[in-house]
Amino acid sequence: MIGVLLFIISLILLVITGPVGFLYGLFHSLIKGGISGLGEYLLKIAVSIDQLGNVMMQHLLNLLWIRKGGYPFGNRDETISSALGRNKKLGMLTGFGKGIDKFLDTIDPNHSLNSIDYYVEPSPKIIDKLAWVLVENKKLLCVRSKGKELFYIPGGKREKGESDLMALSREILEELQVILKPSSFSFLGNFEAQADGRPKGILVRLRCYESNYKGILQPASEIAEMQWLEFKDREKVSKAGQLVFDFLRKQDRL
Q1: What pLDDT, on the 0 to 100 scale, is given for residue 122?
Q2: What is the CA radius of gyration of the chain?
Q3: Closest residue by Cα to residue 174 from 155, 146, 147
Q4: Which of 80, 147, 239, 252 is most buried, taking the most CB atoms under 10 A from its CB?
Q5: pLDDT tens digit string along 126-147?
Q6: Residue 104, pLDDT above cutoff 70
Q7: Contact (Cβ atoms closer than 8 angstroms) between residue 87 and residue 200
Q8: What is the strand order of the sheet 135-136 is part of?
Q9: Separation of alpha carbons 64 and 43, rounded Å
Q10: Are 50 and 80 in contact (CB under 8 A)?
Q11: What's the mean pLDDT when you consider all of the chain?
């Protein structure tokens, strides 16, 4: 009931104040920033409308554009194109969805893939993790948890209120008994793939960082073993981890 009431209130506000605010925004953006300022303002509106469409049309898009088990439309923080791109990577588009994707590609090459938003808020369909990438002698440090077969890049999930640095430092200390050096902490990239051992459409997103450390590396907590893996060993790691291997390979670091 609360959702219905809030929807009615927001709709009234949009109808009454929306046109006035929009006209003032056009005028303000043009005066302050010229044509580029106006374009930036309109782009923000376009993205917001796209996000609204992703929520408003989610059930219809899930029915027509993706196969059962695909990554669902409907994340309020994500655009339609971003969700389309995720399903394209997973190979979960229907014939209709592929047709839409090809049409968009004629306007903007690789539109959906380039539109994937790796900063959308976590949802039940995206497992958000942090990972520490440590490369030495063209080998990547990987670990294996007790009772698991696949290796993964060391790291874990944030706890409420933690920054990336705080969370990753805590996880690495727990898993490998070393301390990351904040001054050397640097972002490497986001890597996303189907989550291992989870139903189709459940993704894991690795937000990877590099950092120097102090201490002696040694498995602890739930870690059964650690290994320095070469590129030829990429099949031993999770799907998201394999993307990190590919990225480092292109940089000639593995």
Answers
A1: 66
A2: 22
A3: 155
A4: 80
A5: 899 999 999 999 999 999 999 8
A6: yes
A7: no
A8: 135-136, 139-145, 223-229
A9: 27
A10: yes
A11: 91
**What number of CA atoms fall less than 13 Å from residue 119's CA on the CB side?**
3
Which range among 19-33, 39-53, 170-184, 186-200 has the greatest average pLDDT? 170-184
pLDDT tens-digit profile of 66-92?
Answer: 998 899 999 888 999 999 999 998 899
HEC profile of the chain: CHHHHHHHHHHHHHHHHHHHHHHHHHHHHHHHHHHHHHHHHHHHHHHHHHHHHHHHCHHHHHHHCECCCCCCCCCCCCCHHHHHHHHHHHCCECHHHHHHHHHHHHHCCCHHHHCCCCCCCCECCEEEEEEECCEECCEEEEEEECCCCCEECCEECCCCCCCHHHHHHHHHHHHHCCEECHHHCEEEEEEEEECCCCCCCCEEEEEEEECCEECCCCCCCCEEEEEEECHHHHHHECHHHHHHHHHHHHCCCC
17 burial via Cβ count (<10 Å: 0-12, 13-18, 19+):
exposed
Per-residue pLDDT band for 123 (boundaries 50, 70, 90) equals confident
Average of per-residue pLDDT across 38-54 = 88
Scanning the structure block, which residue is given the tokens 């294996």?
A: 144
Q: Report pTM.
A: 0.70
Strand bridging mode 203-210 / 126-132: parallel
